[in-house]
């Protein structure tokens, strides 16, 4: 290979890399095509993006209504949240509550939801209703759950012989935490 052809082949390799990076960026944007009803308020800034892996816990119990019957009823989430390097940043548990590794926590209340994937738990927008401790979660006002996979209640197996039993259904999601803009 002569010196005259090296820059051209180097340029071709760089061009392919640039196209691949643009394609990856476009795919990432499609991953977060967020429905309007679960977008955070415009006056808030993103303070943490995380990925969760864990379970949605359901209990086989009687439901309220005209005819009481047994069904899988949501009890609590249980998940570990990690950053983009895979380092644990928080735990997610009943409340719904998120506790940062610095000890601060935020408890939320669902404001709205969307169901882009009928095979998975809904995407959510939550607002903070309680805080504890000083740290990362102290100023969080809005939480989003996006890009969910799995976690829906079982459709079978809840009958008189299984009343009171728990089902732990695997799920993953991305959680974004927002605080007031400074």
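^ structure tokens above, recovered residues below v
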């Amino acid at each position: 290979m002569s010196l005259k052809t090296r820059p051209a082949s180097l340029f071709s390799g760089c061009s392919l890399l640039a196209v691949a990076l643009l394609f990856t960026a476009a795919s990432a944007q499609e991953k977060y095509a967020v429905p309007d009803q679960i977008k955070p308020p415009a006056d808030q800034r993103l303070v943490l993006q995380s990925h969760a892996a864990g379970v949605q816990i359901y209990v086989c119990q009687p439901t309220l209504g005209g005819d009481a019957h047994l069904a899988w009823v949501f009890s609590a989430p249980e998940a570990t949240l990690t950053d983009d390097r895979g380092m644990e940043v928080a735990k997610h548990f009943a409340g719904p509550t998120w506790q940062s590794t610095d000890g601060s926590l935020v408890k939320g209340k669902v404001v709205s939801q969307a169901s882009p994937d009928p095979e998975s738990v809904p995407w959510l927008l939550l607002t903070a209703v309680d805080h504890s401790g000083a740290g990362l979660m102290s100023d969080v006002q809005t939480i989003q759950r996006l890009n969910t996979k799995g976690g829906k209640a079982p459709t079978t197996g809840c009958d008189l012989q299984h009343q009171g039993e728990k089902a732990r259904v695997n799920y993953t999601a991305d959680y974004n935490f927002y605080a007031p803009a400074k």
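The chain has two domains: 1-31, 46-180.
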